Amino acid sequence: MIFDNAIHTLDSVVKLQNFEHVGLKNSSLVTLNEALVLTDGGTGPGSVDIESGSELAIIPAVAGNFTFDPLLTGKGTLSARLDADTSAFEFSHNVGDQFAGTLKLGTSSFALEGLNTSGLTHAMLMSESGNITTVDSGVQQIGGLGFNGGTLIFGSVMPGDTIASNSIETSAAGTLDIRGKGTIQVTMPDEVINDIPAVDTRKNLLEQDDAQTLVTLVNAAGTVTGTGGQLQLVDENGQAISHSQTFDVTQGGEVVAQGNYDYKLLGSSDGIKGDGLYIGYGLKSLDLQGTGDKALVLTPRANAQGLQTDLGAQLTGAGDLAIEAAGQVVTLSNGGNNYTGDTLVRSGTLQMANDNVLGATGNLNVASNAVFRTNGYSQTVGALQTETGSHIQLDSGSVLTVSGTQRQPGDDNGGVIENNVLSGEGTLAVTGSNLTVHGTNIGFTGNASLTQGALVEMNGAQGLGSQGSISFESLNDRLAIDIADGSGVSSNLSKSLSGKGSVGILNTTDLTLSGDNSNFSGEFRVQKDAALRASDEKHLGTGLIDSDGVTWLTASGNWLLKNDITGSGALVKQGAGNLIINHELTYTGDTTVENGVLIVGDDSVTRAAGATLSGSKNIHVLNGGTLSGLGTVSGQVNNQGTLASLNALSGYETAEASNFTVGSLTNTGVIRLAGGKTGNTLTVNGDYTGGGTLIINTVLGDDTSATDKLIVTGNTSGDTGVVVNNVRGQGAQTADGIEIVHVGGQSDGNFRLQNRAVAGAWEYFLHKGNVGGTDGNWYLRSELPPEPQPQPQPQPQPQPQPQPHPTPDKPVQKVYRPEAGSYIA
């Protein structure tokens, strides 16, 4: 059975007993609550292969010891957490020695001997919190060893011993990882404890923490990571083995710190290169006391190398730490540092060699030409202060957090990042802080996060780089962008946005979004003289656009707008594609359609009938632009381009006939109601001023014939040419005619046919009013207008003469198209 990218819990391993092999691959996590039983009826051990990145977790439901039985291979992780640290985890003889991954032991006991040692020949033992591993006598050869809160018991150390009688050797291909916390337990006679080595305080401070090794516990043939600063040395009773000495650290005639010297764990036998784990004596901690100009200064001696430039002693206290290392690199490797003062990188490079090596520092200050490098580790600082020409390298896997928890209450100043300071692929996290970023940091390709009311103010769109992402926790987290005119700073925000934050476009900033912001559901706030530009649906996500400036949307294909738009600002539609609005937009500024089509309501979703531009006061459709849809536009429309029914658009030809409603309309362009279906209407909810063209489809027949129609609730004026397309009409005699323009108010506008409207033997003409003359609508009728009545002639005076009877109207002459004559003959 193969688990491929699976997360699964097996509460009954009987389900696997008919399988000879179990494999885990592609980041699978399988949890076992019982001992694994493989093969038919559990008669054989079977095999388990765990690929790198996958984990088989053993968490038994029953208390007591646990034996892992199958053949074990792969480079992944086998983890175990039992009920108590007295419950033993062990390998059976079937496990073999082919496993090259990690055995991660939580709550449990483990005897590093025999079959257990053999099973780890090429694998790493990681002792987690709750684990107690006892090292058997002799040299136990395993692939690697690491600590994450666990305890290793090495037995007795006798006077004169340089190598413990119970020791470990890690392979040339393996790693000894002593960065984490852990406990080393040995039994040391009193005469050993009372033998205090001499301390040479004249040596460079960076070399006093690796000064003297006494007893070898682990010999590492391969890589050593860390210096053992967080490992505690205890006796058989669990009490710290200690005989400490304290000395003042004086620089420039001032006491800047106090140094504590004691028994400790070391990772190097020569103070230069990590090569094992040793009991030693040396500088164990520094209590920082001086601040500012009186800060403790770390400066490597000339030609120092390896661990001679590293400080593994713990840093405590409220004082400051300064690095002055021009042309050199100083590393800090103790993850248990907890000092609260400032960290001042004045020259050279300060490089992290463990997580949290800056303790709870209030400020990280990096001077011009100085460098701070995270080296893959993570750190929290109260504020980040940089100077022009400084450099901060956030390496992959690192998280540098600027947090208000490490500043004084009420202080929200998270510092300043100057132009071209940040680089790397790590993460910058801003938590409850105001951080100012100047210019661009194009070299930073990692991610940024804003949480707990964070504010990041930038005067360039690429202040946090051009790649990666910016995530927000809530609307209280804000990104404010203020780009001055003519500054030359990029206005293209290409980083991806996610979460529910607020992006402010301030003053005269003209901001272009180009990242994939599909997961952004916050808000864009555009100030009065500012602009926001987007050219794809993913650039805006589903965020609210609250704009008092201008929003420019450029659509090249079909863009269904998912964003609400509010505020007093304007909206400009650009691009040859369709921008589709299927909900209500309440912004009150002008709307301009420069190119392409703005569709207010289409038939793609059920809510399209609610599509409304309810607040926009003026809608300008320019030459080359089209306004269409089946929704409502409440404002006044000035059409120099095209107003179209939905099914008159390319791609919508099969849509049903529909109504499109606009406010008062000035038409100097084209109203195209003629589409894929007949019966479309344009309702002008106000006055209509002509000057352009109306194109309709009509089934030329009697008065009840289907037709497209212009409906005006107010008054009409101006002149409009009408083009009528006959849609399969056969012609018929009409009375009032086919109504194509309905006028609810004063009908002063003129509508005139621009083409012949013919059907069968009939030709239709456009008439104002019904035959009774009781309305101002416009009709297509197959008749001539009545001839004017002659005026009575004045009679001579003084004798009045009886008035002559008026000449009777001539009969209405039905009009047939001229071509019909041949048929009549």
From TrEMBL:
Presence of the UniProt keyword Metal-binding in the record: no
Keywords: Signal
CDD domains on file: PL2_Passenger_AT
PANTHER family reported for this sequence: C-TERMINAL REGION OF AIDA-LIKE PROTEIN
Pfam families, alphabetized: AC_1 (PF18883), PATR (PF12951)
Protein's UniProt name: Putative pertactin family virulence factor/autotransporter
Annotated Gene3D superfamilies: 2.160.20.20
Region of interest: Disordered: 781-825
Biased composition (Pro residues): 785-806
Keyword Signal tagged: yes
Annotated Autochaperone domain residues: 664-766
Cellular component terms (Gene Ontology): outer membrane
